[in-house]
Amino acid sequence: MSLFKRIGDNIRANINSMLDKAENPIKMLEQYLRDMEDDIADAEVAVTKQIAVVKRFQKQYEDSQVMADKRETQALQALEQEREDLARRALEDKKLHQAKADDYKEQFEGSRETADKLKAQLREMKDEYEQMKAKKATLVARAEAAKAQKEINKVMTGFGKDTARKGFERMEEKVNQAEAEAAASIELKSSGQDLDDELASLGKNNNDVDTELARLKQKLKHHKKE
Q1: Are 118 and 4 in contact (CB under 8 A)?
Q2: Of 31, 34, 13, nearest to 23 (Cα)?
Q3: N or C: which end of the chain has fewer CB within 10 A?
Q4: What confidence tens digit (pLDDT) does each residue in 134-149 have?
Q5: How far is 206 from 217, CA to CA, in rounded Å?
Q6: What is the pTM of this model?
Q7: How far apart are CA 103 and CA 61, in angstroms?
Q8: To which H or E segment does residue 26 belong?
Q9: HSE of 176 in the Cβ direction (CA atoms, 13 Å)?
């Protein structure tokens, strides 16, 4: 697995964990983007170095191949002038340069393939960075909404259990008690007045009877005289 592939996998795997553990998700999102920018900058440096390696192997391959081709041409010229010994030396040197050229070519092609992969992965990182940057606004809004909901839930959990509500309940009990005491006082006073009136009425009724009885006795006495 390449360096950039590991970086990309790490980015995708860690974002949710980072947000879950973050005390301030918004700041963590900003830090996350800065971390991605740093990773991309490091990746760009690595790609630049790899491209330099490709160019170096390419030049070494081309230079060695040029020398190998040159020695073959020189060997042919030596044979034309019947200098077989010189032609042999030229071919021996060509063999050395050709071996180097073949080795450099293999290194060149391998490093170029690696560079192409790194550049493709770097583009993926940049694309993902742009996507995350565009998604930041949505994530920030969600984080703010979650924070607000958490605060509301916290308030609602304690709602109705606070001092104010208990104070209202105590005041209501006191009002109910005061009303009950007032009603009892009125009832007691009313009961006392009824008894006094009844007793007074009873005495009044007896006086009326005595008066009427005296009148009848007087009337009866008068009839007897007649």
Answers
A1: yes
A2: 31
A3: C
A4: 888 887 788 788 888 8
A5: 17
A6: 0.53
A7: 8
A8: helix 25-80
A9: 6
